[in-house]
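User: For a benchmark we're assembling, each entry needs the component sequences followed by a predicted structure for the full assembly. Here are entry 17's components. Please fill in the structure.
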Amino acid sequence: METTASKFLGVKMRVKEVYERLGISEKFFKENSKTSPDDFIKILGEIENRIPEMNCRVVPSSFNPDDENLRAFPYTLSPSWNSCETALRAFGARGVMMRLPLFWQTESLLHSACRAVGAFIFLNETANMPVGALAIRVAEVATVVTDINDAYLFSSYLAENKFPMGKTWIIVHPIKEGVRAIPEALMEKGIHVAQEVHVFPGVPVLDQCANLWADKSTRFHVSDSYIHENAGGGLLITSAENEPMPFFRYHLSIPLRESGKCVCGKIIFETKT
Amino acid sequence: MLNFGQLQSLTEHVTDPAGGQFYRKLYKMLPGDPSLKIGSLKEWQSLPLVTKEALGAVPLKDRLFIPMPLVDHIAVSSGTSGRSPLFNPHTNERNQEFQFEYHDFKTPIMAFGGPMIPHQYERFMRQNGIPERVVAFDPKNPKASVILARAAGVDSLSLFLYQVHAAGEHMKKEKMNERIRFIDVVGETCSQVFYEYMRKTFPKAKIVSSYGAQEVDDAPYIGIACKPMNGSEPLAVYHPKKTHYLEIRNPETGEILEPRAGVEGDLLVTAYQGEPAVFPLLRLQIGDSIKVVEEKCPHGSWSFTVLGRTNMDFVKIEGGELRSDEIGRVLRLFPERVSDIFQLHCYTRETQKGPLLELVLQVDARGKINFELLARDIENNLRTGPSFTYGEGVKEGRYLPIRCEPLEQKNDGKKHKRIVVH
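Assistant: Structure for entry 17:
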């Protein structure tokens, strides 16, 4: 979200209030401070005991289940995944297969997006590719929601075993792993692909509009939920909406560069190579 | 339970010429035939049964009684041996208020897929004015799930029985096992050993067992816990849901039996929770045998316990499932030592690591063979998941090693159970 300085100030004040209420050390929200990913994990550790009394859901702070620093990130209670919902609606999804790990806590978020567009959800454990493939063939499932690593594995499995590829893929790039180009099999004309970069599972910070979906490249916009600052050394985001645990000048750990303005009016960011 | 008048209306509804065609085909009705009107319970009892095979033979879209956009989710259930899994459509869960008998749901719950998946719990809580705080349990990543559960303040669990051990061990490490005050388990029949484990691990928990199947629309409950488990046998006693009609069938004669205390037979399930119903289920032969416990339980209906599967050809275990067709495949890898005739006995053994699964595989040996060596060869080839073997599970400490022994029941031409859960 691009915004005026005065609006930005208002947002920062609101974030500051939340941090103060949660008893977060002042050093994390001083006027010109940045929040590094490591600092944010420390903050999550500080507020963990407050979570049961917060009106929130939790998602993990890591995409890796074995991460020693895995913490709970308090996230909005009302299940929403707006960017996914937009893509599902645009591509006319009817049956949606979720192949994201269950511990990511994205099932309810995706289900909510599905119901908003009149689609059903089907959970497919990532290891169980035969059943996932069968769902595409016989169970009216034509949309796959997965992460970039699984997109490679599952699309290869479908191709090798001569299953239909599915009409639509919504692909999550975990920010810590950087952004990779999508598999060749999904470049085929007729397959729609929407990509997002998540800072934590279910928390998109970079997404795409219809123009960016169309070229299937790894170019993104900053999600509408955040105000961003391009601070030379990288992109800083601040939560624009009321969140139980907002980001304050959070440094996105991914090398991005501005790449002009999109037809939709937003700034395009692409991965630095 | 549904009454006869409701069964009459239901039969008419599912055979309406303008509606879904599944039952019209099953009942061999002709294109111009009007909807079926049954005049007596005897006529109802003569209606053909629905089987999983019959459901699996019809494409999902042709099984729907409502437009596709009203389908909430689909869930997969294991097909019978050698057959494809069955994709079951579901609408919104309804009529779930019975769940408040044992728990208030005011605090976060950790749930997997049985009886309800996380979004269903969220909706159930929201509909009842409770903040929808649910942590999804990931059986592949129990440690990460439990870390989140601890942080969220989870104090109740809804899991498959075979997942409770993994969750319990991680909860002990996170020192949160003693805060658990409610557990709803579903899945395989609970053994006394496993009940003792749950009692010891979760000393403050009220433990109930629910009985369900994914073929049932809305939330897949068939049997509602009649009482919490307290260690006395039968451990799990159920009564029917008010939107269901359960029948007991003599497996040899096909006769429908009166639900008198002690009567045993195969269970038939009719489930209809009102509209929208994605697939009204009439007389499904679920594949379980049951025994009536009380003719009138405190909830006003007859109650029952589940004895086991009638033709068990798979059993769900931690990290996957054991399938009889897979066991047959593995045995055929060693034709010089055994035939593919077997009987598998599943036991839950108490160990220092908690209750673990032990398999005793009775095999039809060809001459004198080394059973110990055969057992190792089998477990290293026996898949419990698409990319996981039983042997890998043994190495990880999930299961006890397989024991092989000579088959007691020889191939005498009669049908014997291939998997027996003790």
